[in-house]
Design a protein that fits this description.
heterodimer, A: alpha/beta, Rossmann fold, 2 domains, seven-stranded mixed β-sheet, six-stranded mixed β-sheet, 13 helices, about 40% helix, B: eight-stranded mixed β-sheet, 8 strands, binds thiamine diphosphate, binds iron/sulfur cluster, binds magnesium ion
Chain lengths: ~400, ~300
């Protein structure tokens, strides 16, 4: 392993490039990219790479960036890109098209608030707006988590049992522009982890097929059912890919949900992204003071593993979800999923909080305020925004 | 799940457009595909087709009237998807062409930025626009390729604006080759496609594509309409090399504009003023002749 001090974007760029390079014995790698803060450095890193067999196209829009990925992937190359915020929304049509075509593209996302009004800082509303697309979504909480998850993502995406694209996200600026010591896996280990991609259904002259033509209602429903079935195979594939990762790299990547201190907890907090590292600290402190509190990192958002989530909270009767996103007229997007997951636990008091919108600080004092509020509640209510600006 | 493929098919490639396409009777695009097939010879192209009538042409999954690898892309994406395909094929030493087959909507309108960017990057793609001057697939709305005066479902009183000069836009990219294609000039049509196929880089071909459904014309007259459009000067046949050197392939022969217009219902109720239209056609020809005189194609 090479230990290096790198930013989140450099870490993501390294992982994408290594994964692309690992396909040099097969059909190579490719994709298209377009700049947007805070992910820009990722595609700059990819553009700067000298692949043995691959090239990356600087295009005129995110819509075309994903279109190029669709082309390179259809032609059988390992394909990837990166984006953020309005770039993701601009790309949306082709994000759906890539998933519907079952192309194992990996996209790094530096989460950023959608505008205008313009705001370049982190919240998860951008990638979560794409939650209904046929893509896996994994939210990372640290630089190392990001590198590991990107490599893992290729392995899962390309598994014939899955064959779906994957988004791997980092919080904009909080990870993308801060530096940490990271283990950057050397090429030979990445080669060992990511076998040459052999896409059985790639475009080829000797097996002419028409992709994306008109489909009847019956075939369309079947197609969606197949995607759902592939999503349902993700846990087993993720598990295997994690075990193989540990075998090759000597450390275990994070799973779908990482529960800490939930075994004896009365109160459990759930969050995704960098909020998790803050929770970790607050929870450690409160536990030293004798509180029975734990937390769950929501790592895999698509597919959403409802039963596993219900298990992850253990016997806790009080659960607070900290969403860094807002679904207008509904509330927290993650809270919604968790509420469905806990439908057979009427004994649980579930409260949604919306924090850190537009890059607002989610620091230990804010978590303390949330926990103080939560401690005083006997009934849940509509999602509460924190900090409380309107009284 | 893992898919086992049958043994590769080594028989000669079937016709690019097999029977049972969904195209309307008399659709000029069907003829264009047949001639494209002829020009290709043994080569097996990859077709990239954005949303348009040609995306419906193959019929419904799992059967397909296209016999070559084809991808139906989102409306604005053909040139970018083709970019990805062409680049990976090049990485793998595969020489067969990557061809976009796109309507005017996906070319002049929603796909213009994508097309422009691919041309600017000089991707190794042959882009053919079959121009029926209308959004045929959605039932006949205006596009920026619709000529002045034409009635469409969104220009019920006739289109006020002139047709966009896409050839000038493409030439401004200084791309290796751009040319117009006429279904009434078979040798010229095949020669241009073969010439384009022999080149690398971005190549753009514009085919006037009569659409009986949208033009309210006789399905038996589609090729005749192209002949008249060329003869009256409305659709100039020419080539542009490197975006700079021009060659005119056929000149107007004095055929009255009305011979072309009156055969089409779209011009019937709101026919454009003949004097104005004649003046416009003459201006366009003066410009084209001057370009060909000052910047002639020598080869
Ligand atoms: C983003 C998007 N907007 C609108 C449509 C609907 N649509 C499909 S084809 C089409 C018109 C196509 O016109 P053209 O490119 O000229 O091809 P033609 O149908 O005439 O062959 C439209 C508007 C779409 N598929 N995607
Ligand atoms: S609507 Fe026009 S272009 Fe489309 S298939 Fe029919 S005739 Fe051809
Ligand atoms: Mg059209």
């Amino acid at each position: 392993m090479t230990r290096a001090v790198v930013t989140g974007n450099q870490a993501a760029g390294h992982a994408l490039v290594a994964a692309g390079e690992a396909n040099r014995a097969a059909r190579g790698c490719g994709g298209g990219g377009y700049p947007i803060t805070p992910q820009t450095e990722i595609i700059e890193n990819v553009m700067a790479a000298r692949f043995s067999k691959g090239n990356f196209t600087a295009v005129e829009s995110e819509h075309s960036a994903m279109a190029v990925c669709i082309g390179t992937s259809l032609a059988g190359a390992r394909s990837f890109t990166a984006s953020s915020s309005n770039g993701l929304l601009y790309m949306t049509e082709n994000v759906f098209a890539a998933g519907l075509a079952r192309l194992p593209i990996v996209m790094a996302v530096a989460n950023r608030t959608v505008g205008p009004p313009w705001n370049i800082w982190a919240d998860h509303g951008d990638s979560l707006a794409l939650r209904d697309a046929p893509w896996l979504q994994l939210y990372c909480d640290s630089h190392q988590d990001l590198v590991d998850t990107i490599l893992l993502a290729f392995r899962v995406a390309e598994d014939p049992r899955v064959l779906l694209p994957v988004m791997v996200t980092e919080d904009g600026f909080l990870l993308s522009h801060t530096s940490m010591v990271v283990d950057l896996p050397p090429q030979d280990l990445v080669d060992a982890y990511l076998p040459p991609l052999d896409l059985a259904l790639r475009m080829r002259a000797d097996h002419p097929r028409t992709y994306g033509q008109i489909m009847s209602p019956r075939e369309t429903q079947r197609h969606r059912e197949e995607i759902q079935a592939a999503m349902e195979r993700v846990p087993e594939v993720l598990e295997e890919a994690g075990a193989e990762f540990a075998h090759v790299f000597g450390r275990r990547p994070r799973g779908a949900f990482e529960a800490e201190h939930t075994a004896d907890a009365d109160t459990v907090l759930i969050a995704a992204g960098t909020t998790v590292s803050t929770l970790r600290r607050v929870v450690e402190e409160r536990r030293s003071a004798g509180e029975k509190i734990g937390f769950v990192q929501l790592k895999l958002f698509r597919p959403f593993l409802r039963d596993e989530l219900a298990q992850a909270i253990g016997a806790a009767r009080r659960v607070a979800v900290l969403d860094r996103d807002h679904s207008s007229g509904s509330g927290g997007i993650m809270w919604n999923e968790i509420a469905t997951s806990l439908r057979e636990r009427p004994d649980v008091l579930l409260q949604g909080y919306i924090v850190g919108l537009g890059g607002g600080e989610v620091d230990p004092p804010l978590i303390d305020l949330v926990l103080d509020d939560f401690a005083g509640r006997e009934r849940s209510q509509a999602p509460i925004f924190f900090p409380r600006l309107v009284t | 799940m893992a898919t086992t493929l049958p043994a590769p098919d080594t028989a000669p490639r079937p016709h690019l457009l097999r029977p049972d396409s969904t195209n309307c009777p008399g659709c000029a695009m069907s003829v264009g595909l047949q001639w494209l097939d002829e020009a290709l010879g043994a080569a097996t192209p990859t077709l990239v087709v954005p949303a348009c009538c040609a995306a419906v042409t193959p019929g419904a999954f799992p059967a397909s009237a296209y016999s070559v690898p084809t991808v139906a892309t989102t409306f604005a994406s053909a040139a970018a998807v083709a970019t990805g395909i062409a680049r990976v094929r090049e990485l793998n030493g595969e020489a067969d062409p990557t061809i976009c087959w796109a309507g005017d909507g996906g070319t002049y309108d929603i796909g213009l930025a994508t097309l422009s960017a691919a041309a600017e990057r000089n991707e190794d793609v042959l882009y053919i626009c079959y121009d029926n001057e209308i959004y045929g697939n959605t039932g006949g709305q205006r596009s920026s390729a619709t000529p002045r005066g034409a009635k469409t479902s969104t220009t019920p009183r006739g289109k006020v604006e002139a047709k966009k000069d896409i050839m000038a836009i493409m030439a401004a990219h200084r791309l290796p080759y751009a040319a117009t294609l006429s279904l009434a000039h078979r040798d010229d049509f095949l020669r241009k496609i073969r010439l384009a196929l022999g080149m690398t880089g971005f190549r753009f071909l514009l085919m006037l594509s009569p659409c009986p459904a949208g033009w309210k014309s006789d399905p038996a007259e589609s090729v005749e309409l192209v002949r008249l459009a060329v003869a009256c000067g409305l659709f100039p046949l020419y080539e542009v090399f490197d975006g700079e050197r021009y060659r005119v392939n056929a000149r107007p022969d004095g055929t009255p504009l009305d011979d072309y217009l009156r055969r089409q219902g779209r011009f019937r109720t709101v026919a454009p003023s003949m004097d104005e239209l004649r003046a416009q056609v003459d201006r366009e020809w003066a410009r084209l002749d001057e370009l060909a005189r000052v910047f002639p194609a020598t080869d």
